[in-house]
Amino acid sequence: MTVTPRILLIDDEPNIRESIGAYLEDNDYEILEAASGREGVDLFLEKNPDCVLVDLRMPGMGGLEVLAELTEKSPETPILVVSGTGVIQDAVGALRLGAWDFVTKPIVDMDILGHAVAKAMERAELLRENRLHKEFLEREVERRTQELTLANERLREEMVQRERAEKAKSVFLANMSHELRTPLNGVIGMTNLLLAGDPTPKQKKFLELSLEASMQLLSVVSDILELSNIDSDRFELVSETFSPAEILSPLFTACASMAEKKGLTFSSFIDPDAPETLFGDGARLRQVIMNLAQNALKFTEQGGIAIDIRPARKATSQEPASETDNEIEMLFSVRDTGIGIQEDMQEEIFESFSIGEDFLKKQYGEAGLGLSISKKLVEMMGGKIWVDSAPGQGSVFQFTAKFMRRPASSLDEIENAVFIPNPTERKPRTIFYAETEPIHQTLVGRTLKDNGFEAVIFEALPRFAELLAQSPCDLLLLDIRPPGFDALELIRSIREGNESVPCDLPIIALSAHPASLEKRHALEAGATAYLAKPVHGDDLMTAIKEALAG
Amino acid sequence: MNVNSPVVLILDDEDMVRENLQAFLDDEGFKTLTASSGEKALALLADNRVHACIVDMRLPGMSGNEFIIKAHKAHPDMRYLIHTGSTAYKLPAKVIACGLTRDMVFIKPVRDMCELSDAIRRLVSQGGEP
């Protein structure tokens, strides 16, 4: 359905209204006529036309006034000004006031007027559509915003509920674990009593099997609780200084005795280059190694188990990119000669209760949740865990974990106190370092260089005294147990003034033998200080600083 | 069991655990007393000479920790062994101040109860007469 557009003509001259009106009617417009400005405004408000043509020069209310009032009342309605020649300035003023177009009188060609009207109405239509579209968009944005707000609220609510559920789950698991453990107390305790009585050998065997099964159930219950604890957001690793050798030694003793009972060999090795102390969660580290060792013992019937611990950088011969000065990545491996694991199972065994495996031939089921717990712990320690294995060929479980060498705050202190070379000292101090082992040459040499010392490394120890005489040095670092050379004798000789170096030259003795006897020998021979290998960078710097300070 | 046998007080709110420990420790040559709460245990200590206590932690009324702190004040020579079902149990500083160490904490159930009797013997041989 088309609606005839309605045009309001405001002009005080009847013949002009007539001629324009006739032309527009011929062009399918409906015409409203007003003979004065006031009448025009009233008619406008009453009939709400689609377009207005207004004369500028009228007695009473002039065209500009009409224009101003209508533009304010209905800015979307096109108003065209019809003005006589010679009043062009009025036309410009009218355009400024909001007229859409102007047509000069006398109108020679009515089509010009028709075109102007059609154009103005077309533009008005476009503007209206534009406005409607804009309004639609605004409504749409408003609606979406509301939707998003609602969705956010729902999410927040869901999060609160999830947290609540998580907490309920933890409480439930803790209670369940307690409820399961309580009767197990009875089962295990009473079995113990029967075993302590005087059972026949057959009864004893049954009781021991019953005890074993109870303990297995107990460990599953504990593992479920443990896994849920680790999964919860509240779980955090402890940060404390620990000695790997110290915390692992009781575990290794226990493993050795269990291995012996099964007729297996057991060996453990901690690389001498591994720091003596680390900063991190030692108890959790022990837990992971224990899980792996227990599995190895469980699935091995002949041969043995070997545990190996070393800095990861040493094992791969390349510097791990993420290791920083204070951070060290360690590599732990547990090797067994057990049943092995087929390749397609090697990732699944780290998942909790892996469902890929048919439970009727559940070969690895007994491994329980230990590997899954281990994986989570290792990942929290910034490392990864994997296995290399083949059926019948045994398995090597390996994992990496990152630790700090020392607490971060004390590092700052050390850096401020020792590591920054004295700026007033222009010439670098020269340190002669006598060492035959390439690893120590690199490690100590680098530490010295990093701290602003000139390091000269000597390998040819028998000629060392001779070389010493050739250029001056500020301090001597000396491995006191190199093969085929009596370093203690050299120290004594320097102290007695028999060598061509100052007899009070600071000398730091190094040895891989940490025994206190070794230290006494070194100090008695005249060494300024003694350090056990492997030497920590900060220990070395402290010793050097003290020795140079005299 | 002779007159000089060490006396052990078993403090646990679960009947089965008390009975179990009592039967076992009796067989191992100890004299035993039992209590189901810290309050009852303190009352028993007032009238009996006790060398060592096996203490559960989760108890009605005062906790095992509170019991140890109170009992230690009244009987400084008495020794303690903690027997708890909580795998996450950590010795509080106040309990460490009563002379307890980590190797005196046993998580229930203990696989081999001889570990408990061995630990009590070690404790009693260190301690003086109550």
Q: Which keywords apply here?
A:
heterodimer; A: 550 residues; alpha/beta; five-stranded parallel β-sheet; elongated; B: 130 residues; Rossmann fold; 39% helix
| Overall body shape of chain A | elongated
CATH architecture of chain B: 3-Layer(aba) Sandwich
Number of domains of chain B: 1
Which sheet architecture does the biggest sheet of chain B show? Answer: 5 strands, parallel
Q: Helical amount among residues of chain A, as a percent range?
A: 40-55%
- Could you name the CATH homologous superfamily of chain B? Response regulator
Q: What is the residue-averaged pLDDT of chain B? A: 89
Structural class of the helix and strand makeup of chain B?
A: alpha/beta
| Count of distinct strands of chain A | 17
Strand order of the largest sheet of chain A: 2-1-3-4-5
Structure explained in plain terms:
- The complex is a heterodimer of chains A (550) and B (130).
- Chain A is α/β, with parallel strands linked by helices.
- Chain A is 50% helix and 17% strand.
- Chain A has 16 helices and 17 strands.
- Chain A has helices at residues 14-26, 37-47, 63-73, 88-97, 110-196, 201-231, 244-261, 282-298, 312-316, 370-380, 408-419, 438-450, 464-468, 487-495, 516-525, 537-549; strands at 6-10, 30-34, 51-55, 79-84, 101-105, 240-242, 265-270, 278-280, 304-311, 327-336, 385-389, 395-404, 430-434, 454-458, 475-479, 507-511, 529-532.
- In chain A, strand 3, helix 3 and strand 4 (79-84) form a beta-alpha-beta unit.
- In chain A, helix 3 (63-73) packs parallel to helix 4.
- The N and C termini of chain A lie far apart (108 Å).
- Mean pLDDT of chain A is 82; it is low at 355-362 and 410-426.
- The two termini of chain B are 19 Å apart.
- Chain B is an alpha/beta fold and 130 residues long.
- Chain B contains five helices and five strands, in the order E-H-E-H-E-H-E-H-E-H.
- In chain B, strands 2-1-3-4-5 form a five-stranded parallel sheet, sandwiched between helices.
- Chain B has helices at residues 15-27, 38-47, 64-74, 93-96, 114-126; strands at residues 7-11, 31-35, 52-55, 79-84, 105-107.
- Chain B has a single domain (7-127), classed as Response regulator (Rossmann fold, 3-Layer(aba) Sandwich), CATH 3.40.50.
- The model of chain B has no long low-confidence stretch (mean pLDDT 89).
- In chain B, strand 3 (52-55), helix 3 and strand 4 form a beta-alpha-beta unit.
- Helices cover 39% and strands 18% of the residues of chain B.
- At the A-B interface, helix 5 and helix 6 of A face helix 1 of B.
